[in-house]
Amino acid sequence: MNRGAVLYAVGGLLQILAMVLLLPLGLCVRDDLRRPGSAAFGSVESLAFCGAIAFALILGTFLKWFNRRSRYDQGVREGFAIVTLSWVSLALVGAIPFAAWLMAHGGYQGPTAWLAAFTDAYFEVVSGFTTTGATILTNIEALPRGLLFWRSLTHWLGGMGIITLALAIFPAMGVGGYNMFRGEVPGPSADRLRPRLRETAAILWGVYALLTGVQTLLMMLGGMSLFDAICHAFATMATGGFSTRNASLGAFDSAYLDWVVILFMFLAGTNFLLHYRVLFRRDWRSLRENREFHFYVGTLTLAVLAVTAALLVAGLPDPGSPAGSYHVSPLSPEGYSAHLQAEAAKVADPAGALRHAAFQVVSITTTTGFCTADFDLWPTSAGLLLVVLMFWGGCAGSTGGGMKMIRVLVTIKASWRELKKVMRPRLVAPLKIRRSSLQEPMVANIVGFFVLFVGLFVVCSLLMTLIVPDLVTAVTSVAACIGNVGPGLAGVGATQNYAWIPLPGKWVLILCMLLGRLEIFTVLVVLRPSFWRR
Questions:
Q1: Cα–Cα dist 226/219, whole Å
Q2: CB atoms < 10 A from the CB of 36, how many?
């Protein structure tokens, strides 16, 4: 292991982060100047952004300078180490503005106040970078615009990957570019569009930026302000789910905005290589022949129809019935009844049921996590289906989390093949996707990932049951974080947040978010002691 090459690359990425932080700092300074009686850099958040920028620049320059002679000696191990350490360190720097604001305005008290504020800030930023969308904020609308913008920007950077962005801008980083690219891009393999890695990274980011810009314009046509449109477009295309409103997209109560977001969540959950081939090469054949895309569309269609039917047939509980799920701060009987009536009105007719079912199914499957309805009140069958979809995720090469559709499809085919072999032990049946046979090492890799994903989910769920008093909350919080979804059920449901989770539980969930975003293997390999031996 060449630690110098790893530290050199981490230093370069910290320098890039410092430049990115200038954007929210500029917005903070602008708001400072517009505030009566305030001067530039007169707010806590402005000073905190300045501190984060200075720290990232100094540390990044130091790491690059003292490791410059080792930067070219790299390999596979260095690539995976760079990805994991970069995501951890970038989140640490990115948490500084949130930690400062929380210490000043969050009401933290006691000798461990700094630890609680830092944990919450780190949780929020890791949730942003990993595009999970789980939040510890109880009043999102109280945040300054600079922090709201930085919160959404972490989504956008993490969606396509800040290392992929660095490769597109600075191709000669002096480290194994493809090894980093492979460690960060979600999916069983990281395909190239061009022989040069920089061109592939630039194409992916170009398509990503184009779709983000189009969605921003469409949402402004629906009545959103420029600021809200940009923040929600960042969160949608990154399949992140951070909103500028406490009630998420439900605060806008617009069918037009809901369907626009549904469309772009669907596009964000599709392989971006397909977007490039369709948009720039007019290669519609790639859509017709891509079995993962067909499986993705089929899954969404059937799930939307099933949830819509469940809502129309079973409906929501009677307004007079008691609350049926665990909440840390439950509503009063009158408040619960009023909330239930409002939610029932959303799905009272077929059009409303279809709209909200489509929104939540696409939001959960693509792991975006936006909410327009409290699906914790929906029929049990619909809730269970949404939990299952948290694991499936979007397509490989998309910004979605989860296991990815291609892995689910291959695992189903591999299981069916083994079932046939029970009856015909001598059967030789290559596993095919369309007309192409998958190599057995690839099948083993995918099945191994599936087993590891489920195994880690079980282990982390057991840990959370020791910390959280409700089983549904403990299990779905892990599912929502390791799948990079955000909202779960019960205590972490659509109208709840993660602020009340005890500190140990937050650190378990932080690990889950990193494991899910970096595809498990990348993190687990780095955690092995033998990985760091020379």
A1: 9
A2: 4
Residue 432 is given by DSSP the state E
Which spans in 161-315 are helix H? 162-169, 177-184, 197-221, 226-237, 255-268, 272-281, 285-289, 291-313
Predicted confidence (pLDDT) per residue in 16-64, tens digit: 999 999 999 999 999 988 887 677 778 899 999 999 999 999 999 999 9
- What CA–CA distance (Å, rounded) separates 228 from 140? 13
pLDDT in tens, 386-425: 999 999 999 988 888 899 999 999 999 888 888 888 888 7
Whose structure tokens read 């499809």? 409
Q: Cα 44–46–47 angle (5° rounding)? A: 65
Burial of 10 (0-12, 13-18, 19+ CB in 10 A): buried
Question: Between the CA of residue 190 and those of 179, 290, 514, 526, what are the distances in Å?
Answer: 10, 16, 19, 19
Q: What angle do CA 398, 402, 407 make, to 5 degrees?
A: 80
How far apart (Å, rounded) are the C-alpha atoms in residues 404 and 293?
11
Query: H-type helices in 67-131, by residue range?
Result: 76-105, 113-129
Number of other CB atoms surrounding residue 329 within 10 Å: 8
For 67-75, where are the alpha helices, taking DSSP H only?
Answer: none
Q: What is Dmax (Cα atoms) for the chain?
A: 82
E-state strands within 345-452: 432-433, 436-437
Q: How far apart are CA 374 and CA 356, in angstroms?
A: 10
Q: Rounded to two decimals, what is the model's pTM?
A: 0.92
Residue 386, amino acid: L
Three-state DSSP at 490 gives helix
Count of Cβ atoms closer than 10 Å to residue 51 Cβ:
14
Whose CA is closest to 131, among 418, 462, 399?
399
Which amino acid is residue 281, in one-letter code? Answer: R
State the Cα–Cα distance between residues 443 and 15, nearest whole angstrom.
Answer: 39
Query: Which residues are paired to 436 by β-bridges?
Result: 433
Instruction: Determine contact, residues 175/64, Cβ cutoff 8 Å.
Output: no
Among residues 347, 349, 348, the alpha carbon closest in space to that of 361 is found at: 347
Q: Is 202:44 a contact under the CB 8 Å cutoff?
A: no
- Report how far residue 463's alpha carbon sits from residue 504's, in angstroms, rounded to the nearest whole number: 9
Following DSSP, what letter does each residue of 282-314 receive, concatenated? --THHHHH-HHHHHHHHHHHHHHHHHHHHHHHT
CA 313 to chain centre: 33
In the 8-state DSSP scheme, what is residue 468? Answer: -
Taking the C-alpha atoms of residue 288 and residue 24, their distance in angstroms, rounded to an integer, is 42
Q: Which helix (H) or strand (E) holds 388?
A: helix 380-392
Helix (H) or strand (E) holding 341, with range, is helix 333-346
Residue 437 phi/psi, 5-degree rounding, is -85, 135
Tokens encoding 67:
């490791």
